[in-house]
Specification:
mainly alpha, 73% helix, 0% strand, membrane, transmembrane helix, transmembrane, DUF6512
Length: 163
C-alpha cells in the first residue's frame, strides 16, 4: 500500500498545486497553492496528505487506531518536506537548473509521503496515550489555522533572514 498511497498523494498534491491557478476560485485559497513560496508548498502537502488519508480510510481493513497516527503524519509531512528539500542547497549550494529543481521537488514530495507512512504504520502498532492524542489534535487544529490564516495574508517573518 505504501507505494500506492505515495502516488495518490502526489496526484492530489499536483491537483492542489494548480487548482487555484486554473480555477481562480477564492474558496480554494486555504487548500491550494496561490504562489510558488515554500509556505504554499507546505500547505499543499498538508492538505494533500490529509485528503489522501481520507481516501485510505475507505480502503483500510483496520479502522481502529487509524486516525491519530495519520493526523500526526499529516502535521509532520510539511516539515519532512522542508528538512529533505534543504539538503540540496546544504550539499550543492544554489542550483540554477529548472530540471534539477523540478526533479528534486518530485523526489522530496514522494520521500516525505514515504516517511509519513512509515511513521504512521509504526505508531499504529502502539497504544497512544490520551495526552499524546490531545497533542496530536491540538497540533492538527493549529496547522489548519496556520495554513488558512497565512493563505490570505503572509506573515512579516522570514525564516532564513536576520531582522
Amino acid at each position: 500500500m505504501m507505494l500506492w498511497k505515495a502516488l495518490i498523494f502526489l496526484g492530489i498534491y499536483a491537483v492542489l498545486h494548480f487548482g487555484y491557478e486554473l480555477s481562480g476560485w477564492e474558496l480554494l485559497k486555504p487548500i491550494c497553492g496561490v504562489d510558488e513560496s515554500v509556505f504554499e508548498h507546505l500547505k499543499i502537502g498538508f492538505w494533500a496528505y490529509f485528503f489522501t488519508n481520507i481516501i485510505e480510510y475507505f480502503f483500510a481493513k483496520k479502522k481502529h487506531g487509524f486516525w491519530y497516527p495519520r493526523i500526526l503524519s499529516t502535521v509532520l509531512l510539511p516539515w519532512f518536506i522542508v528538512l529533505i528539500w534543504y539538503m540540496l542547497p546544504v550539499f550543492f549550494g544554489h542550483v540554477e537548473s529548472l530540471a534539477v529543481d523540478l526533479s528534486w521537488a518530485f523526489v522530496v514530495t514522494f520521500l516525505a509521503a514515504i516517511l509519513s507512512e512509515i511513521l504512521e504504520k509504526d505508531l499504529e502498532r502502539n497504544s497512544l496515550g490520551t495526552a499524546l492524542k490531545i497533542v496530536i489534535v491540538v497540533l492538527f487544529i493549529i496547522s489548519i489555522i496556520f495554513y488558512t490564516a497565512f493563505s490570505y495574508e503572509k506573515p512579516w517573518i522570514d525564516v532564513f533572514t536576520k531582522h
